[in-house]
Every structure is written in C-alpha cells, then in structure tokens.
Amino acid sequence: MAGTVTDAVGRLADLMRSAGSVVALTGAGISVPSGIPDFRSPGTGLWENVDPMEVAHIDAWRADPQRFWHFYGDRFQTLRDKEPNAAHAALAELERRGVLTAVVTQNIDMLHRRAGTEELIEVHGTIEHSSCLACGSQYPLDVVRLRLEQSPRRVPECDCGEPLKPDVVLFGEWLPEGALERAYALAAGADVLLCIGTSLEVQPIAQLPGITRQAGGEVAIVTQGPTPWDDRCAIKLDGDVEAELTALVEALG
Predict the structure, then answer these.
(1) Which residues are catalytic?
(2) Could you give all domains of the chain from N- to C-terminal order, each with its CATH number?
(3) Using CA atoms, how far apart are residues 253 and 248, in angstroms rounded to an integer?
(4) What pLDDT, in 10s, does the model give residues 175-213?
C-alpha cells in the first residue's frame, strides 16, 4: 500500500529521526485492516451484541467453560486466516532499520510477530497457546483448535481432563507482571511513544503516555477517533493506519 507523505507525517518522521528511543504502543485499530473487528465500534465491535463480563471474564470461564468457549471458539475461527497488514509490516521494517526500539501491544492476534517484529511485549497475552490452570500444561493454538473441534461439549481440555484457558488476559485478571514492568520501563525510556490504533482509555496501559511525558519524552498518535491525549501530544495523524505508517516509513527513508 502506498502512503502520501503529508506535512504531519514529515514532522513525525523528523521527531523520530532525532529520538534515541522510539517505542510503539498498538491497540485494536492496527488490526482492523486485517479484517479483525475492534471492540466497541458501532455495528462491528466485538462487544456490540454481548456483555464482555458474561463471556470474557475469568469468573465466566470458571463458572461455564462451555459458554465461554462458544464465544472464544468463534473468536479463534475469526482470527484463523488473518494476515498482518501494511501497518504491521511498517513497524517491523522500522525495527529492522533500528528506528523502532520495541512494540508494546494490547492485541492478542499474533500479527505483529508474524509480520516480523522481534522486540514485542504482549501485555494482554496471546492466543498462540492455552494453558491448564490445574496442572500447568500448555498447548499450542493448532492443538487447542483441534481439541475444540473434537470435543462433544466444544470445550478444549487438557490431558488431565480440565478445561483449557487461552493465555490471554480476561476481565478480572491481572496483566502479566513481567510484561507490564517491561512496558513501563520502555515508556519511561522512550524519547517518542508512538501510539497506534488505540483509544488510550484502557487501564493500566493508558498510563504509558503519561509515563513517557513525565520522563521528558514526546507522545505521537496515529489513530482514527478521539483520545484523551489529542490536546497533549506532539503530533496526531488520524488517517488510514496503513497509509499513514507506510508514508512514515517512506519519509524516514
């Protein structure tokens, strides 16, 4: 995908060029061009017709694994054939060039890693594997899908007979401590925190821009729709995320 190097893109490129450390923070909006719906957009969001507290809460998984996996099984199928888009590829290219230090993502879809990003912090976990909370066994995604399809109850089970839980952070769970600490440290050390496709409203990750600013860095935003940081960021790009990031790569030469 081609992108147009606008004045705003040029200013962002200049800001990043002069930075010692650039860290990207990505949310659901970066994966929308890959055909993955975000969570709250009217008509298409994942939570449009379901209450997340009823189907995506840790208590829901414990109380009714069958209902939980009816929802999450559909989510797994939705993600099955999705491919990284030009925005994911742009970030991987910037990392390869040494412009981008790391990507902190709220997404669980594995697309950053598949695009080639190496320094990736998945603060909400990943669907790459699921685990048994009873015995600690872990199973890769393909095995989980097979067990889901073969189960009469449509609940993938561990060899020990207990239901598996996807290794994603559900409502009611804490974020992985190591990933969160790493995200905080990267934000504190960033000269530029580049926030992409995120509303910057979901805690505790919404704290990262403030951490960067407090440490003397700048916040730049590439996302459609308003965020709480629109009046405080150095630059806001609100065009198509693939076009904007592709143009940014071009501007950085």
Answers:
(1) 124
(2) 1-36+84-124+175-253 (3.40.50.1220), 37-81+125-168 (3.30.1600.10)
(3) 9
(4) 999 999 999 999 999 999 999 999 999 899 999 999 999
